[in-house]
Design goal:
It is globular, with a radius of gyration of 22 Å. Strand 12 and strand 13 form a beta hairpin. It is 18% helix and 44% strand. The protein is an alpha+beta fold and 186 residues long.
Length: 186
């Protein structure tokens, strides 16, 4: 199989695939290893965000959330999800977005980081996407602003669509910092 049919497609395929000789001297095609990320997409207002799928324990409708006095401004409260107590965070407040009311499409994304559970309220969950490592770009300052510490990068599937990648480690770091601040003040 030459892979070149005269249409130019074969040349492109040859550029994508490398030929490898095995020990018998027979050439075999092997697909190039492309590093990708699997991400879950969601919306806050009209902005699209993603987080790594391996950080997500589950996605559920917004449960009853009990407010906690003197919690940080972005903590909506706590919720009991089948016996697990979750700290529920309103990410609209962290990202400086208008706080939309909870709707039928609203969900909480339960994050699991080293057995520490937290949940973020989102307006809707959209899709699972797989993105090549090279497709992730640094977030421009004008887009990120003060929220840059919570962003890992920006993905541009095409020129009219931008998806912001949330940095879960930064979110947990903020939780810890706020909890320590609260404990010190008590």
């Amino acid at each position: 199989m030459s892979g070149n049919d005269g249409s130019g497609k074969g040349a492109k395929l040859d550029a994508l695939y490398k030929l490898k000789h095995d020990t018998t001297g027979i050439r075999k095609r092997i697909a190039p290893k492309i590093e990708t990320y699997k991400l879950i997409g969601f919306k806050l207002n009209d902005e699209e965000f993603v987080i790594e799928i391996e950080r997500v324990k589950e996605i559920v409708k917004v449960p009853l959330v009990t407010r906690v006095s003197k919690a940080p401004h972005f903590v909506e409260g706590v919720a009991n999800l089948r016996g697990d107590i979750l700290q529920v965070v309103n990410f609209h407040k962290i990202m400086g977005l208008d706080n939309l009311p909870i709707s039928e499409r609203s969900r909480i994304i339960v994050l699991d980081d080293k057995n520490v559970l937290a949940a973020i309220i989102v307006d809707s969950v959209s899709e699972v996407i797989e993105v090549e490592k090279e497709a992730v770009q640094q977030t421009p300052d004008i887009v990120a602003g003060e929220r840059s510490k919570f962003l890992k990068g920006i993905i541009k599937p095409h020129k009219h669509r931008n998806i912001l990648w949330l940095d879960c480690a930064a979110i947990y770091s903020e939780f810890s910092a706020q909890n320590e601040k609260k404990a010190a003040a008590a």
